[in-house]
Amino acid sequence: MQHITAPELADWLNNDSRAKPFLLDVRENWEYETCHIAGSTLMPMQTIPARIDDLDEDAEIVCICHHGARSLNVAAFLEHHGFSKVSNLTGGIHAWAVQVDSAMPKY
């Protein structure tokens, strides 16, 4: 598993010469509705085991949660199930709001 910072992810998303990652937001619905990174897909943590077949094993996946703990667990789970291109957003959506998008609501 890789770890990626909010500024590194922002650079990746803004780099048109590089394929965009699949942004997997593992928070709860209310959290996602409060704030999220554009283009991310909501799949709450507890739904991952039942929905693992909905994910592309070959895709570059960045797991996102509030502060990075839940997404770290999901990234480890995915890696254990054969996903080899998984990254965890260090500091989660909170780090994104602080370091990249200061207009994003914080909770």
UniProtKB/TrEMBL annotation:
Keywords: Transferase. GO terms for molecular function: transferase activity. The keyword Transferase applies. The keyword Transferase applies. Residues 17-105 form the Rhodanese domain. SUPFAM superfamilies: Rhodanese/Cell cycle control phosphatase. PANTHER family: FAD-DEPENDENT OXIDOREDUCTASE (PTHR43031), SULFURTRANSFERASE YTWF-RELATED (PTHR43031:SF17). This is Sulfurtransferase.
